[in-house]
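Input structure tokens:
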């Protein structure tokens, strides 16, 4: 039962709206039954011709002592109705009853609207809050987390699972505070009219609840499986749209289509099964409850025919009208229960992200990083992407990077060059050993202040669907445009930017798709130049440039790297000949290091790589 209400924890920021929603739901339930109970005096008005005798008897004996019992309310209502009939006539009494019923119904619908009015900001606010929390958590989590999670699955949780939570909250609020109140008030009214007949209702209604529980038992598991398959489907769509050029180039349309259709068919099969199971509960519960009502109709009819139980024909018709109102809330409860079960499955998937461990955190004694002064030091550093796995990507790395020096990392693909560089801004943390900056372990430096002093240009230029100006100034506030232009000029990007339709205000499309590869890379370089950090990480920064642009940008980068500490990852060895130190990484270890000429003289791995490139 506790789990059924667990989704309500997301409404804690909307306590006032929740209270008002509960209040108006209760009032709606009260007036729903009240408007129906008024049918009893209406029926008595039509069928009962003993109003005069009843009125005279009450005048002679007086009303019973005031109480909140059904008998007092019934006697008072009969007395007032008899008084109106005798003094003003039956037509006038009929008008009064119709007006009262109309007003009660008006209030009922008003309260229903007000309940929904205050539910709207809750359901939409919760969706907004959850998405904000999830994107915040996604930005906080380390890169290693996303190497094991699919983007499509993450996007599915932020969209469809959040919508399921919205529906679950709506159904839970109504199920807890409206439908049960309707049922309870109905049962109280039924007891007041006929305790004996209501006993049968109490005995028979649990049958309906038992049937619904059996049918709904497997909904949560089926819903969880369905969401997992949909996330996989989402991932295929995301990968397909992001790789259309490669798919077409390798004529892979058919295989991609088949893969998508297979997953889509599985999702369809699970969804059909889920909907069928969910849709089965409502007709079953309605059929069972209707069977109970028909049995009540038979028993109550016999009581009226035999004159037993003190139940008049008018009271019995009113009793049955109220009893029939138990069907809709029970039916709604079954639907709500199904939606809550699906919401619980979504909640588990969302909570998995919100409670995912963030291994890149600030230590309790973390300090703000002062301006970089002396060196970066790797001390016996080892790292593995899969914790506890003996297959380390980096093993026992010892490396000193002095301020103002350019260190080049070279080696075959997969040797660990990029991973080593990524550990400086703490995209990953060491498994063994430590990295220090100016003698201070980076795990004890505030992450944001550390990264503010590091500029990164990756091999794959990462741009956003925004203007060129905003992409260059990304992460920086209130930057003068003249500085943006200056950075673009250094990166050899200014001329082609001016040729764009709106210059620096040109939107470059999704992932910079409106620009060429070389243009995208120069925008990325301009972004790093504008940040003007003391530490630069250049991961194949010129790989996407043509020969002329590469020369111009390389000159600009050479000027930029003066008096700065630069870690350059390069496959083109011709671009790092002038590096202060070249470090050769081979299978996760430092195999060689030295200047270009020193490494050539060693006649080792570096010389082989250099000669292979020169002989091409």
């Amino acid at each position: 039962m506790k789990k059924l209400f667990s989704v309500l924890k997301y409404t804690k920021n909307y306590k006032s709206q929740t209270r008002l929603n509960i209040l108006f739901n209760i009032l709606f339930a009260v007036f729903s039954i009240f408007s129906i109970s008024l049918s009893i005096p209406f029926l008595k008005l039509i069928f009962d011709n003993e109003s005069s005798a009843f009125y005279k008897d009450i005048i002679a004996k007086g009303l019973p002592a005031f109480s909140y019992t059904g008998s007092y309310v019934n006697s008072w209502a009969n007395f007032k109705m008899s008084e109106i009939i005798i003094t003003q006539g039956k037509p006038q009494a009929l008008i009064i009853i119709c007006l009262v019923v109309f007003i009660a119904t008006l209030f009922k619908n008003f309260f229903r609207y007000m309940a929904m009015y205050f539910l709207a900001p809750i359901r939409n606010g919760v969706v907004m809050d959850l998405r904000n929390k999830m994107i915040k958590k996604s930005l906080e989590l380390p890169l290693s987390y996303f190497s094991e999670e699919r983007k499509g699955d993450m996007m599915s949780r932020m969209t469809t699972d959040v919508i399921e939570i919205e529906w679950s909250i709506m159904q839970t609020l109504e199920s807890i505070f409206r439908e049960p109140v309707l049922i309870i008030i109905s049962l109280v009214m039924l007891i007041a009219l006929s305790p004996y007949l209501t006993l049968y209702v109490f005995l028979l209604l649990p049958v309906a609840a038992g049937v619904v529980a059996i049918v709904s038992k497997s909904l949560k598991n089926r819903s969880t499986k369905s969401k997992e398959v949909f996330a996989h489907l989402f991932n295929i769509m995301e990968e397909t749209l992001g790789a259309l050029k490669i798919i077409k180039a390798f004529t892979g349309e058919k295989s991609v289509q088949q893969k998508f259709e297979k997953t889509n068919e599985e999702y369809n099969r699970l969804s059909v099964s889920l909907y069928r199971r969910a849709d089965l509960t409502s007709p079953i519960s309605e059929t069972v409850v209707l069977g109970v009502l028909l049995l009540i109709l038979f028993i109550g009819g016999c009581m009226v025919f035999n004159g037993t139980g003190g139940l008049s024909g008018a009271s019995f018709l009113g009793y049955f009208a109220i009893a029939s109102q138990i069907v809709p809330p029970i039916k709604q409860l079954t639907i709500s229960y199904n939606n809550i079960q699906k919401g619980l499955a979504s909640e588990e998937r969302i909570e998995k992200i919100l409670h995912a461990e963030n291994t890149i955190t600030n230590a309790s004694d973390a300090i703000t990083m002062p301006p970089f002064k002396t060196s970066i030091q790797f001390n016996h550093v080892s790292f593995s992407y899969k914790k506890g796995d003996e297959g380390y990507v980096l093993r026992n790395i010892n490396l000193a990077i002095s301020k103002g020096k350019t260190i080049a990392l070279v080696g075959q693909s997969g040797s660990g060059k990029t991973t080593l560089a990524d550990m400086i801004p703490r995209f990953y943390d060491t498994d063994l050993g430590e990295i220090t900056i100016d003698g201070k372990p980076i795990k004890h430096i505030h992450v944001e202040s550390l990264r503010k002093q590091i500029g990164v240009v990756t091999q794959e230029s990462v741009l956003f669907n925004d203007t060129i100006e905003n992409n260059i100034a990304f992460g920086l506030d209130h930057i003068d445009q003249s500085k943006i232009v200056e950075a673009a000029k250094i990166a050899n990007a200014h001329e082609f930017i001016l040729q764009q339709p709106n210059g620096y205000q040109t939107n470059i499309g999704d992932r910079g798709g409106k620009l060429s590869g070389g243009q995208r890379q120069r925008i990325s370089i301009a972004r790093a130049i504008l940040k003007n950090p003391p530490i630069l990480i250049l991961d194949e920064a010129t790989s996407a440039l043509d020969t002329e642009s590469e020369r111009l940008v390389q000159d600009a980068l050479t000027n930029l790297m003066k008096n700065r500490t630069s870690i350059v990852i390069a496959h083109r060895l011709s671009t790092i000949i002038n590096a202060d130190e070249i470090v050769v990484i081979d299978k996760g270890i430092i195999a060689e290091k030295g200047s270009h000429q020193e490494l050539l003289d060693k006649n080792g791995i570096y010389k082989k790589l250099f000669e292979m490139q020169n002989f091409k």
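The beta strands are 375-383, 394-402, 406-410, 432-437, 440-441, 454-457, 535-539, 565-569, 581-586, 589-594. Residues 3-354 form a domain with the ABC transporter transmembrane region fold fold (CATH 1.20.1560.10).
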